[in-house]
Here is the input.
Amino acid sequence: MSRDRAGRPGPGRDREADDPAAPPTDLVSVSADGRVSLERGRGGGGRGIYWVLKNVLLGPAIDKIFRPVAEGVEHVPTTGPAILASNHLSFADWLFMPLVLDRRVTFVAKSDYFTGVGVKGWAQRRFFAGTGQVPIDRTGGRASEGALRAGLKVLERGELFGIYPEGTRSHDGRLYKGRTGVARMALLAKVPVVPTAVIGTDVIAPPGKIITKIVSPTVRFGAPLDFSRYEGMESDRFILRSVTDEIMYAIMELSGQEYVDLYAPTAKELAAKQAKQDEEDEVSPQA
Here is the structure.
């Protein structure tokens, strides 16, 4: 089932933001040593800011300019917790995925975005908190553990948590090996995983650039994956790898990307070394 912006249910509304009885949004944050803290009510205006940005200030403009296409939205649960596991082609991915859904989606973001000072720092904090970002300090060597705990907190609240199993953006448009954190989170939280593919954002904003071309991206959701058969096995590394590979295969089918059985940073490093070697070969004198 494919629906464009005109066909999405309840355009311009956010069910959670419309509920006057909804509790204040707690602010989840992760310290440099991987500790997760939940500050009750610190994100109290979070739902309101999220709704205003999505439906008044930011969302309508993005919708009108790019006209994103949504497919398989019916696969995303309308209530309750779930993990949205997506490919990652561009910084713009986290803008388009939530835009096509009625529910709020929470991601993790660098804590630097939340520590600015002055008016600019305040505006930046409000923007990232308001668009569903969880601050995480990546300098302590325990970022993955912190992201896991933060995700579990979000899922405990019955919300949607977005994650990029590759861990970083693809540098060449291919799909890379997934990190097993997504599998561990799914088994610990006992929630479904909705495989997701965002297509065309690397044309809009390639790595290292802001916006280079206006095209309509597609956000495609697959049927939820149920891993309840592995309950209690979240410490088995073979099970975690199997679950992660199943998720990545589902993403590959949705995105149509070529799959590479390497972690993205490793592949990027190898590509850089090869490019350097090729450059040296070109300038070296021929025997």
Remarks:
- Residues 4-25, 39-45 have pLDDT under 50 and may be disordered.
- The radius of gyration is 20 Å.
- DSSP finds ten helices and twelve strands in the chain.
